[in-house]
Design brief:
The protein has helices at 16-21, 34-37, 74-81, and strands spanning 3-12, 24-29, 41-43, 57-60, 63-70, 84-87, 99-102, 115-119. The chain is of the alpha+beta class. The chain has a single domain (3-119), classed as Phosphotransferase system, glucitol/sorbitol-specific IIA component (M1 Pyruvate Kinase, Domain 3, Beta Barrel). It is globular. GO terms for molecular function: kinase activity; protein-N(PI)-phosphohistidine-sugar phosphotransferase activity. The modification Phosphohistidine is found at residue 43.
């Protein structure tokens, strides 16, 4: 698999870990509005070398999560805003246009400096 996006978590909003309890990971690039940043894992924004796709994978903390669904605007949001909502439920249909769904256990924590990758 080739890496289509790679970044590092550099800030964690005060409520970002709460989303993990709901089996969600919400990301945004650095420079997010303060009210949004509060709920996100903030990362250094980089270039994307392709679109998110079913059959691809997300890597986080050394664990690989197969992608099972991709919302209609998820790739665009990632490319333009560094924003994506990852659902750890393995659903075959994206719940929202900006969400992606993966198979695997929800992380209990995502420490600063963690690497997030999307592969295809």
């Amino acid at each position: 698999m080739n890496t289509i996006f790679q970044t590092t978590i550099i800030h964690i909003g005060g409520c970002a870990r709460d989303a993990l309890l709901d089996d969600m990971l919400i990301t945004f690039r650095e420079g997010a509005p303060a009210d949004i940043e509060e709920y996100c894992f903030i990362h250094q924004h980089g270039n994307t070398a392709g679109d998110l796709q079913v059959g691809g994978a997300m890597e986080l903390g050394g664990h690989r999560y197969p992608i099972t669904a991709v919302g209609a605007v998820a790739s665009q949001n990632l490319r333009e805003l560094g924003h994506v909502t990852v659902r750890f439920d393995g659903e075959a249909q994206a719940e929202f246009p900006g969400s992606i769904h993966v198979i695997g256990p929800t992380p209990t924590d995502i420490p600063l400096g963690s690497t997030l990758k999307f592969l295809l």
